[in-house]
Amino acid sequence: MPPVSPMLSKAVKELPPQGEYLYEPKWDGFRTIIFRDGDEVELGSRNEKPMTRYFPDVVEAVLRELPERCVIDGEVVVAGPKGRLEFETLQQRIHPAESRVRRLAAETPASFVAFDLLSLGDEDLRDRPFAERRRLLETALAKVSPPIHLTPATPDRAVAADWFERFEGAGLDGVIAKPTSVTYRPGERAMLKIKHERTADCVVAGFRWHKSGGVIGSLLLGLYDDSGNLNHVGVTAAFTMARRKELVDEIAPYRMKSLEGHPWAAWGSEGDEHAARLPRAPSRWSGQRSHQFEALRPELVVEVSYDHMEGTRFRHATHFRRWRSDREPGSCTYDQLEVPVPSVLEDIFGS
Questions:
Q1: Strand pairing class (30-37; 216-224)
Q2: Which residues constitute the domain of residue 215?
Q3: 170 and 132, same structural domain?
Q4: 184 and 289, same structural domain?
Q5: What pLDDT, on the 0 to 100 scale, is given for residue 288?
Q6: Same domain, 154 and 178
């Protein structure tokens, strides 16, 4: 019965050796555990919250395609018209209005990619090794059709390395390596993830204080677009406490007393499309979390590492590498970012 906390993964730098693992593409969507008992369907999120009401299209597909009684771990994704996964579009599916939920389900339908089987019929499979669960999953989903998919899996490290490079253009952000002998361990990081990492030079145009007070919590990053707007593209926030204290002095000369004259001063202007890419734009995920920030003159440039972009923003928080005093802020544009060669999801499913 829901909720069940999904098994997690820990990051490593490279694919582990062949022999004890099955490799899968790493999907960029909402981690979801599906519970079906006859006509009853529940969708549980990574943090065990219900998502059923937001994805009526997925519920309909589950009732049509999945075994009558099962619990299946996977990912809810949305693919755009060119086959690329669109995480920003997927986020928009989380909406409080029922009418909007139904409209979005029709306009931007979601898919479910299955990659583990926790229960089938009356049998709890979590104590079975992954290799056995995978075989049972393949049998149970042998005849499914879109929008339900069975994720590809291979024991061949060379094939996984090819997926790592080739499918990035479809919006996947790496490869997962699963030990074939591992039982299903809710909440534990029992799998390995290998993600893309690149670097970019960004303008630091603001910061937020750490929740403990008196030290830096995060630096707000910007990149210039073709129109000369400085877009907020993400944050870098993974610092030791000692480094947070040092940053207070390093950014002090650039602090502004107000937002007057700052490129993000008009963040809340009604009808301003650029405002959606500013640091205090509302977020349906952050609830009542404060979006207030302290302004910095946009003169500092920092090199950060990142895995990949989602639209105009970094998909995840970046990692601080070094200050770039040799770079002019105006040179920090989207043009510097590596753009992977497009691919389509049909390549992954072989259809």
A1: unpaired
A2: 198-336
A3: yes
A4: no
A5: 44
A6: yes
Other Cβ atoms within 10 Å of 349 Cβ, number:
13
Those residues whose C-beta lies under 8 Å from the C-beta of residue 267, and which sit 6 or more positions away, are: 275, 278, 279, 280, 281
Count of domains in the chain?
2
Which of 196, 224, 240 lies at the terminal end of a domain, its last residue? 196
Domain C-terminal end among 169, 196, 223: 196
pLDDT average, residue stretch 158-168: 91
Kindly state whether residues 19 and 137 are assigned to the same domain. yes
- Domain assignment present for 342: no
Closest listed residue to residue 332, CA positions, set 305, 300, 309, 286 = 300
Read off φ and ψ for residue 105, nearest 5 degrees: -60, -35
Place of tokens 């291979």: 154
237 neighbors 317 (Cβ within 8 angstroms): yes
Quick check: 298 and 263 in contact, CB under 8 A? yes
Contacts of 59-63 with C-beta under 8 Å, sequence gap 24+, read 61/112, 61/147, 61/148, 62/34, 62/36, 62/112, 62/148, 63/36, 63/39
235: part of which helix (H) or strand (E)?
strand 230-236
Give the C-alpha separation, 175 to 163, whole Å. Answer: 7
Q: Is 193 a catalytic residue?
A: no
Catalytic residue among 10, 13, 26, 245: 26
Give the distance, in angstroms, between the CA of residue 302 and the centroid of all CA atoms in the same chain. Answer: 23
Give residue 265's pLDDT: 86
pLDDT band at 271 (very low <50, low <70, confident <90, very high): very low
Using 50, 70 and 90 to split pLDDT, how confident is the model at 141?
very high
CA distances from 88 to 221, 310, 311 (A): 19, 7, 7
Q: Are residues 51 and 71 in the same domain?
A: yes
